[in-house]
UniProtKB/TrEMBL annotation:
Domain Crossover junction endonuclease MUS81-like HHH: 30-103
Example GO molecular function: DNA binding
Pfam families in UniProt: HHH_8
One of the protein's GO biological processes: DNA repair
Phylogenetic lineage: Bacteria, Pseudomonadati, Pseudomonadota, Alphaproteobacteria, Hyphomicrobiales
Protein name: Helix-hairpin-helix DNA-binding protein
InterPro entries with a match to the protein in the record: DNA_pol_lamdba_lyase_dom_sf, DNA_pol_X, HHH_MUS81
Amino acid sequence: MPEPLLTARPNPGVKPMTPLATKPLPENIGVATKFRDFADLLDSQGADGFRARAYRRAADVVSRLERPLGEILAKEGRDGLIALPAIGTGLAGAIAEMVATGRWSQLERLRGDMEPEALFRSIPGIGPRYAHSLAEDGQLETLEDLENALHSGALHIKGIGHRRKEMLGAALAERLGRARLSTTPQPQPLPPVSMLLDVDRMYREKAAAGVLRKIAPKRFNPKGEAWLPVLHARHDNWHFTAFFSNTRLAHELARTSDWVVIYFQAEGQPEGRCTVVTETRGPMAGKRVVRGREDEQQLKEPV
C-alpha cells in the first residue's frame, strides 16, 4: 500500500517568503538602499551586529517585493507592511516616513544630516516660522514626533491653535499611511530609568576617553567639524543610540557636553527618545536625571 502523501500546513506564526520582483521597483530599491546604508553606518560606528543584520534582511525583503511599498501603504496601511517578512512596527514606521517624504530621520541622524525644519516645511500649512518653532521650541525631530505630540496634547506652539492642529493631524495621517486616530495612542514601553542612566554614564565615559566615532552635524556647525560622539549599545531587548544634545538651547546654555539624548528601541517597536541632564535644582541637584521621569527616579533614590 503506497505511503500517504504528506502536505505542508501553513504556520500562522511564520511570515511567507517574499517572491522575487520580476522588475526592480524604484521606490522599493530606494528604501532598500537606505536600509543598507543604515546597516553600514551601524557597522562603522561599532553597533551590535544583530541590528545591522536586521536592516539588511529588511532591505532584501523590500527589494524583492512585486508591489510598490507606496501601494501597500495606501491600500493596507502599516498593517500591510508589518505583514511582510522581517518588517516589524519600527521598520514599518521607517518605510512610511520614506514613502511620505523621501527621507529617513534615523539615517540622517547617524550621518549628521538631521534637519527637522526642512522635514516639517514639507507639510501643508507649515512655513519656515512654524517649522522652526516645532524643531526648536517643541524639540521635535520627526513626523511621528509631531503626530504623537498632537494626539497627546503635548504640542504647545504659539500660533498653532485647535483648527491648525486638526489640519496637521489629517495631513500627517494621510502621509504616514494610517487611519486617523481619534484617541490618544497607547504609550510605548520605556526602558528602566536605571538602564538609561547606565547608557548615559557609558556614553560620557567613552566620549571623554575619545574612543567613540564622531560625526559632523550640519546644524550649528559652520566649520563642518566632526565633534559629536555617537554610541550604540544593547541591553537585554533594547537598542540604544546616544549623542550629546545639538539643539539651539543646548548651545545657548553651554550644555552640549552635559545633555545627552538617548534614542531607544525595543525589538520590532517604534523608536523613542529621552534626554539625560545634570539636575541644577531641588533634592536631585547635582545628579543625573532622565527628563520627564524625575519623580519616578526620586522614588527609587535611597533615603
